[in-house]
Design a protein that fits this description.
single chain, 401 residues, Receptor-associated Protein, 3 domains, four-stranded antiparallel sheet
Amino acid sequence: MEFEYQAVNQRSEIITGKLDATDEREALRMLRQQNLAPLVLGMPGEGRHVRSDRNARITEQEKVLLLQELATLLEAGVPLAESIESLGASRAGTQAAGIFNEFLSALRKGESFSSSLRKSSMSLPAYCHQLVAAGEQTGQLARSIRTAVTQLNYEMRVREEMRNALLYPALLVVSGILAVVVVFLVVVPKFANLLQGNQAELIPPLSRWVIGFGLLVKDNLTAVVILALAMAMGVILVVQNPRTRERAFEKLASVPLLGQWILQAEIGRWASMLGAMLESRVPIVTAMDLSISGLRLPVLRSKLMQVQRDIRSGVRLADALEASRAVGATGVNLVRVGERSGALAPMLQALAKLHEEAGRDRMRRFLLLLEPVAILLVGGVIGIIMVAIMLAVTSLNDTVV
């Protein structure tokens, strides 16, 4: 069967041509083998556009899906090279296809999959590379990739839960700020005449301050908007700094309820990563190093680094955790049982599950407290403005009477 195509080569040149293939999928595979990104492909006179996202960034969800599909193909007995070729062909015209073609070329040159994965632009956490390398060494690549997918899904779920938990309070605060701005711009200026003449001295100081501030905002609205945008951009730039984020995260960890929630989530992340790597037969010292590197809480990271040093000197993991007080008594007991029974990885996964559930309970408590506090703050500010205006009106009425 003959196909006509229009594609982009490695020099970003658009070329056209024809090729013989049994079906469209094989035609796409043949083009990818020639390092061509297809734009149009079809029977003569009936070519259809092929989706092309060569410069599109691969999202975290897409990375997880790609690894999950690769693990599924390998578990079904499909050879690694054929699995990679199939995944590349199924995403023809995308950045993922180019990455998988690089994997395929590296495999044909004799390189290991873990080495090509580490060199690729498909950025993954360090523990993923270590899991893949361990899977190649033990002949359990599919299982190791599946473990990496499980861990990536766990971390994505934790981040998503934290974002969703803080979304509603953030909306409350933002809507409250907007309400206050509207009051200052629309309501307060209507009482500007109260500050004119001798009657300004008759109204309470609170009323004068509120009305004066409202007039100041209205008269300098452009400057206020520019200042607000500049502050927002400054906050964004500061937040993008890793050190600043780390310090802010550390400060949040000291907040009652919220701090315990963050600590529970971090311990759960560490236990889950360590258990996943031990399950794939990664040496415990290496697994500790990689699991610690994924933590964002400096206090917990410091304690676990001491645990790692103790392990290097021959101390058991449970004893080192107990000495450093990195986890609670329940966690120490779970680890000790795992070491004695030879099932340390499952016990660590159980510990991660325990802390995940505890973190969710603390998250619910935090939200139960945060939401009414945000409502009270917003309502309090608006209430003070309204009280100030009412005091101004009533004070003038009393003077007239």
